[in-house]
Each structure stands twice: as C-alpha cells, then as structure tokens.
Amino acid sequence: MSTATSHLRSDAAENRGRILAVARDLFAERGLDVQMATIARRAGVGVATLYRRFPTKESLVNEVFADQFAACVATMDAAVADSDPWRGLTGVIEQIAEMQAADRGFSAVFLASFPTTVEFQREHARALRGIELLIERAKQAGQLRPDFVPADLTLVLMANNGIVADTPEAALATSKRLVAYLLDSFRAEHARPLPPPATVALADVLPIASCRTSPRANP
C-alpha cells in the first residue's frame, strides 16, 4: 500500500469518527431533526463526504446507536434472567427512564419508530416479549398489581419524556423522582380500583437501541 493510499484511508477513518461523534452529540442535544448539512458543518466535512459515508440519515442513526442497541438488549436479557421478577421489571423501567432523561436523540429515535432495519424490528419484538414476560412473572409472584397492563408502562415513558429541566442533572433527578413515585404505585399492596387502561401501545415508545447515559448538552 502506498503512503498516499494509507493517508487517504486514515483521513477517511478520521472523518467517519468525527461525523459519528458530532451526530451523537447533536442528536442528544436536539433530537433527530438536526439536518445532515448541520452535522457535516459541525464535523468539518463537506455534505458530499457525509453522504459518501452515510447515504441516508437512517444509516447514520443506526451507526450512532449501534453500541447502545447491543447494551440495551443485554440489559433486557439480564432482567428476564433475574430470579426476582420485581427487581428485573423495575430495573428495566428505571434504566429506560434514565436514558430518556439523558438523551433527546434516544427518545426521538423510538417515539418515531426509527430506525427501521430488520435487525431493529426483530430485537424490538424480542424486547416487547421480555417486558410482557416480566410483567406476568411479577403478577404471579404477587409483587405487581393484578390490573397492571403494558399500556401503563407506556404512560410512564410518555410522562418521563415530557420532563423539562434547565440542566441534565436536574432532568435526571426529576426523572428518578417521578419514576420512583410511579413504581411505588405499581406494587400489589397499593392496588386500588383504577379507571380503564389507556389506549396507547407499548410498541410505539419502548426503546431498546440505546442504553448510554451520557449527559444531555444544553441547547
């Protein structure tokens, strides 16, 4: 390999890494509405260079969240394997809520059902089955109120996603407080008659592709 070729490949790898780092920060700060041109400009590359590396925004999002995706699948597997159904279920809910509080991009990806790769859809369905299994086990163990339904978890995620705070630290603290209140109300010993379940789908908001908890940048 010539020195020139080696240098070009090194530059390409450096550009790719910089694009991913910038996209990760901007998605966390602003969500997925960030323009590809904005990412290119912040990364110091041309738009054409960005599209050579990532032909579509979806391909860029897939790459940005790849590691987090794998980590979250592992978290779900560990929860299902936990001998304590309540600990497994609440641990998953707490981690999902923490991810929402930390990263705007995280919420945007999944509230928009994005990305749509075959692998994502397969693992998404697997995560849903895991949540449903945890719910059923916690009920059978007498830990979770018997009238709990998956849509109630959707309400938790929707409420948590609406948190507005001045700093990442405040958002995380608020999220933890909110989720603690809600989880306590899910305990079987607190079960009192409730209105009918909400008509919202867990599949629309359940995130599984990102488990990172890096702080959200200020707008």
TrEMBL record:
InterPro entries noted in UniProt: Homeodomain-like_sf, HTH-type_TetR-like_transc_reg, HTH_TetR, Tet_transcr_reg_TetR-rel_C_sf, TetR_SbtR-like_C
Q: Looking at the keywords, is Heme present?
A: no
Q: Where is the HTH tetR-type domain?
A: 13-72
Q: Which residue spans traverse the membrane?
A: none
PROSITE patterns found in the cross-reference section: HTH_TETR_2
Determine the domain of life of the protein's source. Answer: Bacteria
Residue ranges flagged as DNA-binding region: 35-54
The alphabetical list of record keywords is: DNA-binding, Transcription, Transcription regulation
Name of this protein: TetR/AcrR family transcriptional regulator
Source organism per UniProt: Kutzneria chonburiensis
